[in-house]
Each structure stands twice: as C-alpha cells, then as structure tokens.
Design brief:
Layout: H1 2-16, H2 18-21, H3 27-46, H4 52-63, H5 71-83, H6 88-99, H7 104-117, H8 121-132, H9 139-155, H10 160-176, H11 181-194, H12 198-201, H13 204-216, H14 220-233, H15 238-259, H16 266-278, E1 289-291, E2 299-300, E3 304-314, E4 322-327, E5 333-338, E6 352-356, E7 359-367, E8 370-379, E9 386-387, E10 390-391
Parallel strand pairs: 1-3, 5-8
Antiparallel strand pairs: 2-7, 3-4, 3-6, 4-5, 6-9, 7-8, 9-10
Helix pairs in contact: 1-3, 3-4, 4-5, 5-6, 6-7, 7-8, 8-9, 8-10, 9-10, 10-11, 11-13, 13-14, 14-15
C-alpha cells in the first residue's frame, strides 16, 4: 500500500506545484494534464496486490486530486468506507470529495466520523475550514474553528499546511468577530510558520491571504509584494489582480491628494482652517492632550488626540478603507484611514474630526515609476472618533467584507 501512497503523494505534489512549474499555463491545460496522470496512476494501482478497501481508497484519493468534484471518486470512496468504516483516512478523503460538490454538511459529518476513530490533523483542519463555510456562522463557531486549528498544529508543529489553516482561521476571526489588530498579528505569525513548507509557498492563496493581512495592517509595501507573488504563481488569479490594482490606485490617489491639499486653492484652505480653529474639540480632555500631526510619534499615541478637518476623500469600492484627506490646525496634510464605516454615514467635506489615540504610520513606495510618499493615521472603527463635536452612533458601523480565501 505504501507504493500506492507514494504515487499519489507525488501526483498531489505535482498538482500543487503545477502553476509554479508551468509558468503561464491555463486552468484547461492543467485539467488535461491531470486527467492523463490520473489514468496512468490508477492503472498502476491495479497492478499492486492490495486489499479491496485499500485499492478503492487509493483510487478514490487519486481521482480526488485537484479542486474539481469527481463523482467517480465519491462512488469509489463510499464503497471503501462501507468495506472498512473504522479507517479514518477514508472518511477524510470522502469528506474532501463531497465538499467539492458543495455538500458542506455531508463533509462535516465525514470529518467528525474520522475524528471519532482518531484525533488527526487532517480531520481537525478540514473541520475548522468547513465550520467557517456554513451559511450562517456565529462568533462561537469561528472561535471553535480557531481552537480546532490550534489542536491540528499541536499534533504536528512541523506541518506547514496546519499552520496555514490556522492563519486563515485567525484572518476569518478578524473579519467576522470584531477586527482586532492583535488577531491579524496572530494570523501573520501562523503564516510565517507555514512558510517553511514548500507546498504552502507554491499556493497562490497563501500569498494572497498574507497580502490581505499586510494591507489591513497598513503595510502596503509587503501587501503589494505578496499580491504580486500570488499573481506570479497564478497569472489568472482575478481576485488578487483586482485587490492589487485597487490598492495601488488608492495609494496613488491618496498621495496626489495630499501633495496638492485636496486640489483646493489657498482661499478655500484658509477658510477651512478658520473653521477648524473655531471648532476645537476633544473626546476625553481628562485623559488625552491635544496636539498636532507633526508632534505625533510613529505607531500608537495613547495619551494624545488630534483635531483635523476633512478636505477631500476617497470612497472605497469594498476593498479599501474610507480615506479622508485632512488638515490639522498647523496645515499639516495627511490621510485618515477609517475602517468598518458605512460610507453613507462617513464624514463629509468640511467636517471637523477629533481622533483620540491616533495610530500614525508612513507610506513610501514606488508604483509605476512614481514615488508615493505620505503619512497617515489609522482608525479601526468610527466609534473611536468624533465628528463636529458628536460621538458617532453604532449604526455608523459597516462590517468588513471577507474578500480573502480565509474561509479555506
């Protein structure tokens, strides 16, 4: 049986590395190659002296390689499970197979049956994924998904795939359970551990998801680098291409608007600065001191707050934060990135904002031969700021959309 396992492992590895080893290949070319290889491998399996359930299991594994559902694989694996219902590997493979046809409930049942036979990393990480893919996912289910992924890692800390799935679980938790930046850092740590696995590094989704983490940490240089890596592996990765182009467009627009102060003439700038001076405000004067942008430190400023006026904005298309181009009282111009905000209730031209505990960072990146160099403040939630002396209500919030493959 080991010879059969080795043949399938080699084919699965070649399938995983196909786009990396065949630059510029299309999905159709990969499909034709895989069909030919499957025919060869299944013929070789018939020549091995195996028990009937072992032969069916290995054939089912071979036919199940790839991302497309194969009804023949399901049929063979069902037969294998009937012959030996205590072999957890069969349930894992059957669950993976019917998962591909959209039967998430059936897949989950298979993975749970496998775990009833033996706690194993494949069942745990697959169960973690399928839990995140249910139509209605509660915070409790997401947290359980993370817990199960952690258990998979503890069973084999050297398995890069388990670390990758844990990173995805954290990323899903970030989007669906409150957008806490410390969760993103946990995701990034898991992805870093996964990078020791060559198979993980050949997966464009790994690079795409890691790029998403860096984007939401406002580390645009690394975000662009990882999106570009994903596209170099899989040039037809449309979602990643869109994400990369949108991010580059946001950076270029932000840089230009800051350089020309929102395209306003001097008279308008003077008028808005007067308005800002008239509406000095503070969210909590007893705990923070008011300052200007140039007096902020890079990173967190726990004891400070800043007043600013919106002079322009960039409305997101679902992939980027709401970007406010702002001036402070000393005429410093900077970007204010507000996450998780309903665009219909976002600040408007001339609104005066108070931002307590500002998180300051710098952007210095060349795009299409042009240097984009500016500074910005990050706001994780609009509930942390005041607009025109008013605290924003909870209905200002708009949950972040899960625009990653973190459900996988």
């Amino acid at each position: 049986m080991e010879d059969g396992h080795n043949a399938i492992r080699i084919l699965a590895r070649d399938e995983a590395f196909y786009f990396k080893n065949n630059s510029g290949a299309t999905e159709d070319e990969k499909f034709d190659w895989l069909a030919s290889e499957l025919e060869r491998v299944t013929d070789d399996l018939d020549k091995l002296k195996l028990d009937p359930h072992q032969c069916k299991y290995l054939k089912g594994c071979a036919l199940n390689i790839g991302n497309k559902y194969n009804p023949k694989a399901e049929e063979i694996l069902i037969d294998a499970a009937k012959m030996n219902p205590t072999m957890y590997e069969i349930w894992n493979e059957l669950g993976d197979c019917i998962w591909k046809k959209g039967d998430k409930k059936g897949a989950r049942n298979c993975f749970e049956r496998a775990l009833n036979q033996q706690r194993n990393k494949v069942s745990l990480r697959n169960l973690s994924i399928v839990m995140r893919q249910q139509e209605s996912v509660s915070n409790e289910e997401i947290e359980k998904s993370v817990k199960i992924s952690k258990e998979a890692v503890t069973l084999d800390v050297t398995d890069g795939t388990s670390w990758y799935i844990l990173g995805n679980a954290y990323l899903a938790q970030f989007f669906l359970c409150g957008q806490a930046s410390n969760v993103l850092k946990c995701s990034l740590n898991a992805y870093s551990k996964a990078s020791a696995d060559e198979k993980v590094l050949s997966d464009p989704d790994y690079h795409y998801n890691k790029g998403i983490v860096f984007k939401y940490l406002d580390d645009y240089s690394n975000a662009i680098a990882y999106f570009s890596d994903a596209i170099s592996i899989h040039p037809q990765f449309t979602e990643c291409l869109n994400e990369l182009n949108d991010l580059k467009d946001q950076i270029k627009k932000t840089s230009l608007l800051i350089k020309n102060k929102g395209k306003h003439k001097g008279k308008n700038i003077a008028m808005m600065l007067r308005k800002l001076k008239e509406k000095t405000q503070c969210q909590n004067p007893s705990k923070v001191s008011m300052t200007t942008f140039d007096q902020l430190s890079n990173g967190s400023n726990e004891d400070k707050a800043i007043n600013c006026i919106l002079i322009s904005s960039i409305v997101p298309n679902g992939r980027t934060p709401f970007v406010c181009i702002c001036l402070d009282i000393d005429s410093n111009c900077f970007a204010l990135n507000i996450y998780n905000i309903d665009c219909g209730k976002a600040p408007k031209l001339g609104d005066v904002m108070t931002v307590p505990y500002p998180q300051k960072s710098m952007v210095n990146i060349v795009i299409d031969g042009e240097l984009n160099d500016f500074e910005m403040i990050r706001v994780d939630t609009p509930l942390n700021i005041m607009i025109n002396n008013r605290q924003l209500p909870r209905d200002t919030l708009a949950p972040l959309k899960l625009t990653t493959t973190a459900l996988t």
